[in-house]
Write a structure and sequence with these properties.
- The complex is a heterodimer.
- By secondary structure, chain A is mostly helical.
- Chain A folds into 2 domains: about 20-110; about 135-365, MetI-like fold.
- Helices cover about 75% and strands about 0% of the residues of chain A.
- In chain A, helix 13 (about 285-300) runs antiparallel to helix 16.
- Chain A starts with 17 loop residues before the first helix and ends with a helix.
- Chain B contains 13 helices and no strands.
- Chain B has 2 domains: about 10-75, no CATH class; about 90-305, MetI-like fold (Orthogonal Bundle).
- Chain B is an all-alpha fold.
- In chain B, helix 4 (about 90-125) runs parallel beside helix 7 (about 170-195), helix 4 (about 90-125) packs antiparallel against helix 9 and helix 11 runs antiparallel to helix 12 (about 270-290).
- The chains are: A mainly alpha, B mainly alpha.
- At the A-B interface, helix 3, helix 6, helix 7, helix 8 and helix 10 of A face helix 1, helix 4, helix 5, helix 6 and helix 7 of B.
Amino acid sequence: MADQGDFLHVVTNDNLSERRIALGRALIWGSALVMAVTAGLQALQEAGRMDFGFANWRPTLYAYVLWAVCLCWGQVLIRGERGKRVLFVLPAALFVISMVVFPLLFGLVIAFSDWNLSSPTGRTFNGLDNMRQMWRDDFYWNALANMVRYTLAIIVEYAIAFGLALMLNSQIRARKFFRVAFLMPLMLSPVAVSWMIGKSMLEARFGPLARLARELGWENPSFFGTPEMARLTIMVMDAWTYIPFMMIMILAGLQAIPKDIQEAAKVDGARAWRGFWEVTFPLMLPVSITVILIRIIFKLKLADIIINVTAGGPGGATDSVTSFIFREYRDRSNVGYGTLLAMVYLVLIVIAITIVMKLTDRWARPRY
Amino acid sequence: MSEQIFYDSPADRATRVKWFSTRVALYGALIIWAIICLFPIYWTITTSFKMAPDVMRGNLIPFWDYTPKWLGWRSLGLSPETIGAESTVREEFLKRFFNSAIAALCSSALAVFLGSLAAYGLSRFSYRFGFMRNSDISFFFLSQLILPPVVLALPFLVLYKALALLDTRIGLILLYTLTVLPIVIWIMRDQFAGIPKELEEAALVDGLSIWGAFTTIVLPIALPGMVAAFILSLVLTWNEYFFAALLTSTHANTLPVMVASQTGSQGISWWSMAALSFAAILPLIAIGIVLERYIIKGMAAGAVK
């Protein structure tokens, strides 16, 4: 986290007139009032009491933006120099709060209702029905189990990425070429990758990889036939796109290790293997943990490839939670159930990540 | 020639052989992985010039075992013969292309703008919003990374419907900004932490305001970091599929959605799919080759403290 204490200390002498402060207050509260009135009128229309001719909720949005601008401006008016400092963080904070916190609260309401967007009845509150449905939904539990499997694949990805980073960090020629080449998969859009690899290269009849597999003696190469194989293929494709990401972060860590430490180990007679395990690897531990944590976070969002290559098949075996909810919405356009599943997923993620962070924090803290 | 005086001892010869063999193994591994990384791209380029028999025979090398044809690019309206003529497919493609470009550029710019300000503030001043102090605020921003898009997707679908933002570029831009903002803040916080605060103190003594010092002194120094953050956001937003697939239908579709919608319908006409995929990844390949330095810098920023 940000290191406390190394701040810029500015002592300013603000002469804020009473009128200026009053103006600032008036701006903030005035615009808040405008927003409240607009929202109120729109709510009335929504309830069918009156008709003001609003086509949609845009006016409330505009009123909210107006309020946000006035809030920022008001800070400067009321608090002078300190307000200007607040202005650095406030826009981003307001943006995130309005884009995350509000939709999340709204999502909580949706999660406990039966809401089919294509049906005219609209939203009906149905209590814990969605929860009960989730409990019986084997496909959802399967998707959750898949997420655990997909996450475990990170260990292999990490090992490969570490190896690649070590190779790039050693004395080689054409380092720039290899770095660019190794970076390439990360630049490609997962959707294009799912066609390029999943749909054409792995195609059972004409794909080059299927041909290669046949050359190597696999009679009928089918990469998506059995659930295990399909999951493995998805893992490999996802690994292919994200290994460069881990590799580059590990490479940055390797380059930050002072050379003399490794040289000292060499002088002390450590062979390359022991030198790696007893010097380089322990020094890389903090970086490794960061990399793996970030990779887990990205992995939990895995969806694009699955949606486009297998669409969850065979029989939902490859579904990730995201792709499952995506299809759930596409097929049945039931917003309520999908939102509940997503919320449960979020809660599970937050619990899991917190535990992992606590554990790694305890485990990786240097014991002097 | 005089007689050679110095000889390698037998032990040295052994180490030379060993050195040589490790070199061979190292380059072998590097080249194999480079092939793994580049072959799909090569495959896509060459396939876009193939015809049906070439695809079925599994020909790989152009001019050697097949003659390249413009078939795939013609179906996109981008081959030499069709480039002058009217083409609905090309118009569709260009429309999606510009949608993608606008969404990616605007959201990255917005994220870098908001994120740099927030990161600078958090690295220089101490704040208190209620119970939240600086580290809490930082954590609040960074914790957005954990949030899976699917949690926000359906509420946003409903909200956007009510706000008439469904299928608009602005709606997409706002969401994309949200998804890359934590990454930008992370990179930029690291950047600003590396800039000595004495610089601003000197500027403040010389009579600049805080914002003046920020824009004239700090920003130029932090520019490479901002470029790195921008490029990284660009890559992520250009490739984004999930939100685009859910929230757009006809007007604001991005390129990945177009590619995805074509995959099912095309069957074995690989040449046109290959052309389309390649056109979709081309800008990023170019960025990757030209701006590789910045991408690596951006990703490395978080790894090393």
